[in-house]
Amino acid sequence: MKKNTRKQVALYLLFDAISALTAYAVLYTFRKEYIEPEVFSVNSLEWDNMFYIGLFTTTLYWLLIYILLGFYRDIWRRSRLKEIFQTLGSNVLGSIVIFFALILNDIVENYQQYYESFGVYLSALFIPTVTFRFILSTRTNRRIQARKIWFNTLLVGSNEKAVKLYNEIRKQRNTTGHHFVGFVSVRERIEFLVEKDLPLLGNYKELTRIIDEYEVEEVLIAIESKEHEKLEAIINILEDHDVRVKSIPDTYDIIVGKVRLESYGIPLIEVKHEIMPLWQRIAKRAFDILISLLLLSIFSPIMLFTAIMVRQSSKGPIFYRQQRIGLHGHPFHIIKFRSMYQDAEKHGPQLSSDEDDRITPWGKVMRKYRLDELPQFLNVLIGEMSIVGPRPERQYYIDKIKSKAPHYKHVHKVKPGITSWGMVKFGYASTVDEMIDRLKFDLIYIENVSFFNDLKILFYTILIVLQGRGK
Fold first, then answer.
1. What stretches pass through the bilayer (predicted)?
2. Overall fold of domain 151-271
3. Is the model's pLDDT at 262 over the cut of 60?
4. What's the pTM value of the predicted model, to 2 decimals?
5. How far is Cα 378 from Cα 375, in angstroms, rounded to an integer?
6. If DSSP states are collapsed to H, E and C, what string results for 170-213?
7. How many CB atoms lie within 10 A of CB 274?
8. Residue 159 burial (CB < 10 Å; 0-12/13-18/19+)?
9. Of 150, 230, 250, 229, which Cα lies nearest the Cα of 184?
10. Which end of the chain is more exposed for a tag (fewer CB within 10 A), N or C?
11. For residue 139, which of 194, 80, 99 has the smallest C-alpha distance?
12. What per-residue confidence (pLDDT) applies to 384?
């Protein structure tokens, strides 16, 4: 049965909105019926404009909170117990904000009434919210058990481990919702033990075609120890697709606690594609937009002066546009103030150095204070770049880097940036080997990426610019 994700999300939104509306109505009634009569000796319950404003704003507030926390993503496969605790945590923290915004302004006889108001609101919110969600999750789980909902699944591997995983899932008393469309091999055709039950769809190098053709939603990796050298290549391919990826763990994975027991009792490691929580990604994008608009406004006189100086320094256009490779390997054109003489690369791509005679005198000043980077805030505004992220490179140099460091592809997990941890710790690179040396800092950033680390990198970047330590 085809899953109607939009309808399911709409149901969650509807019931969450009803719960938020109910909670505010209960709080409002409690304040008017029990708190204010004790303070003012009069019953003042009436549904005035302030009531409807509060009703609308608090409901919108809760829906935004749930969206930021990612409650409406991956709605088909949820742990009901985990959902209860996540709902409780979000409701408690969100209600504290409501407490300081609304309840704390009340005139009360004693502080006990504050605590009572908070408890009434939290209870009126949490109980219906978690009840509706539990009902929806239970309904979904039963439909999976009845095989009315399934998930197209691809098995990567063809020998003993793959056979064992396939048989364990198939013999489960309660179905896991996996609908196997086939398997792919990792090595050249030798002995495919899985082929007796599943069709061979191709080699792992054809994963992109197979995923698109069979509308694969989940990939289970079950390869032999001797095939582990292919694992990185497989993961790299899968990173470009919106599929859930799980792998059979080895002993080390179990020891360090990477393994989580799935509801169907089979230990698997889920390979996460998203390296930042949803709320941090939204915060990062909002920050990029706000700061870009602010800086473009503040530095507009400096940018105008810089543009005039570029025009005066040498013949050629003011701006320099060059194709770079961004998020998920998609190309875009980066915008900079031109710092080199026209036709500087007429003999082919070349990296610049400190004593590069292709750089104009004014270009050296711009690079020292990174003024040439200012137009890139336009790239940030349209979503091609972020303020903080690994520096984007040209495909020509990416090919050279990947021939020596294949793991460079991990850089494309995030948007490229104007500044980065690599730029802070290493600076500009003038050779491919230096680009590889800088790569380790970019990979460290990706492994520890967070909105708060972005702020740290920005702080160090500002120091470098003020001290004129850029090239």
1. 9-30, 50-72, 84-103, 118-136, 286-310
2. Rossmann fold (3.40.50)
3. no
4. 0.63
5. 6
6. HCCCCCCCEEEEEEEECCCCCCCCHHHCCCEEEEHHHHHHHHHH
7. 11
8. buried
9. 230
10. N
11. 80
12. 93
